[in-house]
Recover the amino acids of this structure.
């Protein structure tokens, strides 16, 4: 307490002293003699370099508006205006709060205005300051695009000097965040203007130009397609990138060049079997995952590699055997290491900061590696403690890690063998169910998708999941706004209903409710509709379950609705199959037989041009006239009257063997 | 799935071929050898251009990949060895193709073959590839490395669903391979790892066991009929980009060297470097440069300035081919030196004789007033200190000097004015008689007047011989000459060219004019003959005194042989007349003088350089792979 009392006044006095000197600097900016003002700005420049408190003081004391005023004043000497820009650039180098204050003072338009000057030194000073402001995360990038004349002007300044090249490309690289930004830059000739900078004598310029291309090409087919045809000094751009990936080049350059080629490849501009991808980009990215690289580089390397090979099984196969990648990734989970915790606080801090990033990157890469090939999935699950790591990843605090872990789990869940073995052994369904309770949509999509696979009939996890009350959860998913979640919800229910016992089916129907069922049958998303029909089929299949007297009418209504509506062949086929299932039920048969309208529809589809629909409709009739069942004679008679026999007869001549066969079997029912 | 263990053992045993010298194997080995020889002959008879081209490409590639390897000491593998193989192995296609010709009934029938030579450590990183031409019946093939007598690192790869086995552990390793695949094997002797590649993709590093490192041979093992593989030891471009991998290691090692910690001794470090440079300058007598350097860096020069200049003068004389004067000056400045070094004296005298033939020694030059062109020895003169030649003429003021003796570059009309100066200075510095002649170069340099020269040729040329010049001039000289020093010592070619251009037309004339014995002067020839007799006498005297000396005899014979040809410059022993030959004797004399002054006969810089070079060679011998990327010439630009 005593110490505090003594210290407080002391601190205040020091502060006031500092403020006094700072005030002096600001006062000099208002001197009537321009020469004194210039000297004042120069002194201020020397005073603020590397002194964050001084910077903050000057900002608080209102130096910024005055400096901006002097900078914009055409009566100011060029020297003064340049020094003002330099001081502002120095202030921007401070804390994020400094940047905020500068942006609030409208420094950006003022500096952009300054770029119209013809003096190179002044332009460079303005650009340097703009660069520092724009690369800060607190500056809204949109400010670069508000005035449409800015981008073309920046493009024209690219030719002036290496400094303008470095600053402008750095600004572009940081401010290109959306497809719209990409398009603006592209339309103003970014590619033609920046491509020559890739062979600039200055490393910084080369590097920033390369970064520009990586942000421009990301998920942008237009840019990527243009890039492949660009020549730099007679050399194809992709070859320039390949050279930048050579192993004696700086890591930053190798990694960024690999990103460029990855994005161009994913955007469809380079084939996945091109040598520059298979023999250069992929091995380069695998190298970036090695223990020798910095943690940041390993994260970026793994994420980029995951993105590169996501759609291509051949790349996945090559990567899985390159440089022990699968076991190399296991090291990503060893941060912070037990050694760092004891020996080095700084290192522990560093490790902790990157631990989440590393884990999520590794999960992503495992997910990508295992998305198609069964052998790779086996290799992954056999990696040390892999399943445990996924399980604990599912309940980590970081959303990014949870999402990546569930992606990884989803990728592995495509394996029948893994579902039967490791998934069950590690009871992955438990954390998965927990994850589903309360998660953001993107996690939910992945988790529910994984759940679909876990609910497959042969999965040993199906039983425990059922017991955990999953039905309610899935039914609520079908009411989601997101089509992906609705699909997954209904898909999971469909899988669950497959060959399930009556109890489960009743539970599903009750939980879902007829109303929701109809809503799903009129869902704008075809996938949802298809899975709903699939669910109906599964609910109705096997005779004892077919006679769902309570919903009979509604189901018939739904079937009519779909058969009359504008739907794809697949949807209609699925619907006719449902009808065939109904026709198989003891009492449900009557629902069709008493509905002449429906019988006419079946007749129509038997004569349809699509064989699949003909087949499904024939199935339906075949079930209705099946001999061994009660009342089959009446039904046969009625259908004969309606002309079905003629149609069946015609179908026995059909070119499709299945259809022909099915029609013959149906005809036999009459003969018997 | 790994191989059943019994098969692994068998294959490993099979690959270890030299340990099984059964009679059966030997006989088969000879048969294999004959087969291979026949194919070789056919290749040669038809003079297959493709083969020659391949051979050429192989040599080029090996040179590029392994520049540090001295193939006379440690030849590189270029094919499979027809001697070092199992009988079930057949070789063809210049011993590059391996096929299995046994029964392949069980694992006892496994067989292997090694390359002709082990991998030299000086490779640093070594790589070869094998293409699976046919996987044969079962595809039990191993590709890898083996050590002589010891077991190897077999990399077995049965193509059908089986896997590689890595060394010793028997762990399954890597993906499967099959017909059409190219499997590569890389040995990194820097970090002692090896890795395999499949179709251009690295499969990842494995540590090598210590005892496997020395003398690893590229090896393949086969086990079932129909198995055929082709080796690529560099005959063709590799599928895997090994040069890219090497470039990474080169960069690593270079940055390791660049960042080698010198710890707290930063100051010491700097002064060591400064002393290295300074002592080098002093050693070679770059007096002015050395002074300027020591002034700028505040270092001390051990040797007296006058002494440096004297050495410089003597060296210039030798390099200019004026050996007689050099001997005189040495005897005068360092009395007793040559008396104590009769061998050196003899060498000098022999050289003097050669220079007489050349027409450059002053004892014959004085006769030949009429053909200044042929006398002009300076343009082609070699220089430890390059470009001294141009100013030499003004330095030596032997009384006999005639105006025509001055540098061919100097226009005749200017010679007169020169002569005046020379005349003035020669008064104070008459040769061999005056004890104060030690200083005569200084007095001469007061005629630093050669301002014409300053403008005509680049100024450093004179700065060496001139003493009192403005400071800025010195600093210029320092930077210029420091780059030149390296050149001067290692790249004679360049200096000569530089000299040529600086002296210009003198050389051009020289090369077209026909050279004549002793400058074509009768009196000079007689003097030469007389000198030859004296030399013969000296040789006999030395022989009596110290016993026979084969080197002397040879030297004398070579020198006298020049007279046997009408055009000594174009005769089998004409090489002696090349001004370049002066350098060795010049540095020997310089070293002898320094030694007599109790100074090191070699500059520390050269010692360090020599040590570094030797050290790198030693690294290769003790199998430290990084030597391949730490070559001294990489750092001499």
């Amino acid at each position: 307490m005593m110490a505090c009392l003594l210290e407080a006044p002391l601190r205040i006095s020091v502060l006031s002293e500092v403020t006094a000197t700072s005030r002096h600097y600001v006062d000099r900016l208002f001197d009537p003699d321009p020469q004194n003002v210039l000297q004042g700005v120069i002194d201020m420049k020397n005073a603020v370099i590397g002194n964050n408190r001084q910077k903050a003081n000057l900002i608080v004391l209102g130096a910024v508006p005055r400096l901006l005023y002097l900078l914009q004043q055409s009566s100011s000497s060029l020297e003064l205006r340049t020094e003002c820009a330099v001081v502002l650039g120095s202030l921007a180098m401070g804390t994020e709060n400094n940047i905020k204050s500068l942006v609030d003072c409208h420094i950006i338009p003022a500096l952009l205005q300054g770029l119209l000057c013809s003096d190179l030194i002044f332009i460079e000073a303005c650009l340097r300051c703009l660069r520092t402001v724009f690369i800060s995360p607190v500056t809204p990038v949109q400010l670069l695009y508000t005035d449409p004349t800015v981008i073309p002007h920046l493009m024209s300044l690219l030719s002036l000097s290496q400094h303008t090249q470095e600053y402008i490309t750095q600004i572009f690289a940081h401010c290109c965040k959306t497809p719209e930004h990409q398009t603006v830059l592209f339309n103003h000739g970014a590619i033609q203007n920046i491509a020559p900078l890739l062979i600039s004598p200055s490393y910084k310029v080369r590097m920033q130009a390369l970064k520009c291309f990586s942000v421009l090409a990301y998920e942008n087919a237009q840019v990527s397609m243009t890039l492949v045809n660009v020549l730099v000094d007679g050399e194809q751009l992709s070859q320039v990138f390949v050279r930048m990936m050579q192993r004696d080049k700086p890591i930053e350059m190798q990694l960024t060049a690999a990103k460029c080629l990855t994005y161009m490849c994913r955007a469809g501009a380079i084939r996945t079997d091109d040598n520059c991808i298979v023999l250069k980009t992929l091995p380069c990215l695998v190298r970036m995952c090695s223990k020798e690289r910095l943690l940041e580089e390993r994260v970026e390397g793994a994420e980029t590699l995951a993105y590169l090979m996501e759609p291509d099984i051949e790349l996945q196969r090559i990567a899985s055997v390159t440089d022990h990648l699968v076991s190399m990734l296991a090291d990503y989970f060893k941060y912070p290491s037990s050694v760092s915790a004891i020996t080095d606080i700084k290192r522990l801090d560093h490790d902790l900061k990157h631990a989440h990033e590393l884990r999520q990157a590794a999960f992503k890469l495992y997910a990508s590696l295992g998305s198609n090939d069964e052998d790779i999935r086996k290799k992954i699950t056999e990696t040390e403690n892999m399943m445990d790591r996924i399980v604990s990843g599912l309940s980590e605090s970081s959303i990014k890690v949870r999402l990546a872990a569930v992606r990884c789990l989803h990728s592995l869940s495509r394996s029948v063998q893994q579902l039967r073995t490791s998934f069950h052994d590690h009871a992955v369904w438990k954390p998965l169910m927990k994850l589903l309770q309360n998660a953001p949509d993107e996690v939910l999509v992945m988790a529910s998708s994984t759940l679909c696979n876990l609910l497959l009939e042969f999965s040993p996890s199906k039983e425990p999941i059922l017991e955990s009350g999953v039905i309610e959860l899935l039914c609520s998913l079908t009411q989601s706004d997101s089509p992906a979640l609705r699909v997954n919800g209904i898909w999971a229910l469909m899988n669950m209903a497959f060959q399930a016992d009556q109890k489960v089916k009743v539970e599903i129907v009750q939980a879902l409710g007829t109303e929701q069922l109809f809503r799903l049958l009129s869902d704008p998303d075809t996938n949802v509709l298809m899975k709903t029909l699939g669910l109906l089929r599964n609910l109705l299949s096997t005779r004892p379950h077919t006679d769902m007297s309570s919903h009979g009418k509604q189901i018939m209504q739904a079937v009519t609705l779909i058969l009359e509506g504008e739907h794809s062949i697949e949807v209609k086929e699925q619907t006719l199959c449902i009808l065939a299932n109904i026709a198989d039920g003891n009492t449900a048969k009557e629902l069709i037989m008493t509905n002449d309208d429906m019988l006419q529809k079946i007749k129509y589809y038997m004569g349809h041009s699509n064989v699949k629909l003909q087949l499904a409709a024939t199935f339906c009739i075949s079930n209705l006239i099946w001999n061994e069942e009660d009342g089959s004679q009446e039904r046969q008679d009625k259908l004969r009257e309606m002309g079905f026999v003629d149609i069946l007869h015609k179908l026995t001549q059909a070119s499709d063997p299945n259809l022909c066969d099915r029609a013959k079997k149906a005809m036999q029912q009459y003969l018997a | 799935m790994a191989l059943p263990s019994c098969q692994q053992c068998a294959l490993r045993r099979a690959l270890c071929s030299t340990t099984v010298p059964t009679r059966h194997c030997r006989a088969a080995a000879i048969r294999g050898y004959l087969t291979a020889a026949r194919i070789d002959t056919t290749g040669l008879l038809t003079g297959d251009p493709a083969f020659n081209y391949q051979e050429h490409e192989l040599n080029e590639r090996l040179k590029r990949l392994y520049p540090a390897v001295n193939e006379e000491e440690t030849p590189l593998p270029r094919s499979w060895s027809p001697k070092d193989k199992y009988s079930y192995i057949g070789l063809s296609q210049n011993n590059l193709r391996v096929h299995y010709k046994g029964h392949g009934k069980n694992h006892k029938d496994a067989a292997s073959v090694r390359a002709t030579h082990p991998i030299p450590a000086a490779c640093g990183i070594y790589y070869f590839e094998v293409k699976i031409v046919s996987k044969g019946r079962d595809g039990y093939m191993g590709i890898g490395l083996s050590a002589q007598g010891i077991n190897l690192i077999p990399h077995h790869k049965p193509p059908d669903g089986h896997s590689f086995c890595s060394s010793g552990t028997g762990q399954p390793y890597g993906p499967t391979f099959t017909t059409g695949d190219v499997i590569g094997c890389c040995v990194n002797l820097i970090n002692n790892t090896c890795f395999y590649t499949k179709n251009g993709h690295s499969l990842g590093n494995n540590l090598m066991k210590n005892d496997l490192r020395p003398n690893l041979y590229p090896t393949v093992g086969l086990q079932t009929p129909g198995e055929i593989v082709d080796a690529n030891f560099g005959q063709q471009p590799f599928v895997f980009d090994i040069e890219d991998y090497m470039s990474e290691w080169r960069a690593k090692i270079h940055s390791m060297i660049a960042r080698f910690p010198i710890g707290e001794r930063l100051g010491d470090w700097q002064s060591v470097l400064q002393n290295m440079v300074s002592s080098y300058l002093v050693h070679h007598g770059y007096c002015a440069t050395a002074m300027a350097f020591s002034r700028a860096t505040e270092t001390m020069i051990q040797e007296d300035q006058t002494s440096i200049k004297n050495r410089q003068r003597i060296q210039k004389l030798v390099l200019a081919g004026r050996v007689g004067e050099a001997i005189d000056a040495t005897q005068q400045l360092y009395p007793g030196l040559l008396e104590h070094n009769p061998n050196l004296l003899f060498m000098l005298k022999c050289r003097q004789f050669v220079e007489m033939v050349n027409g450059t020694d002053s004892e014959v030059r004085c006769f030949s007033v009429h053909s200044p062109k042929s006398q002009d020895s300076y343009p082609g003169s070699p220089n430890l200190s390059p470009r001294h030649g141009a100013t030499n003429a003004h330095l030596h003021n032997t009384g006999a000097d005639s105006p025509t003796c001055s540098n061919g570059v100097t226009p005749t009309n200017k010679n007169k004015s020169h002569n005046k100066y020379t005349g003035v200075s020669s008064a104070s510095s008459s040769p061999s008689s005056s004890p104060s002649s030690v200083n005569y170069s200084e007095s001469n340099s007061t005629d630093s007047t050669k301002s014409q020269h300053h403008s005509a040729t680049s100024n450093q040329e004179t700065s060496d011989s001139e003493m009192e010049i403005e400071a800025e001039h010195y600093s210029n000289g320092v930077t210029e000459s420091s780059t030149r020093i390296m050149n001067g010592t290692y790249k004679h070619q360049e200096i000569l060219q530089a000299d040529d251009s600086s002296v210009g037309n003198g050389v051009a004339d020289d090369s077209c004019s026909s050279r004549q014995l002793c400058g074509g002067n009768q009196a000079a020839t007689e003097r030469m003959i007389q000198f030859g007799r004296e030399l013969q006498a000296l040789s006999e005297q030395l022989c009596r005194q110290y016993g026979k000396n084969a080197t002397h005899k040879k030297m004398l014979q070579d020198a006298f042989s020049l007279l046997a040809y009408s055009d000594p410059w174009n005769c089998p022993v004409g090489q002696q007349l090349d001004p370049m030959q002066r350098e060795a004797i010049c540095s020997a004399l310089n070293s002898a003088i320094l030694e007599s002054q109790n100074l090191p006969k070699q500059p520390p810089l050269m010692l360090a350089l020599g040590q570094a070079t030797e050290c790198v060679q030693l690294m290769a011998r003790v199998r430290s792979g990084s030597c391949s990327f730490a070559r001294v010439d990489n750092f001499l630009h």
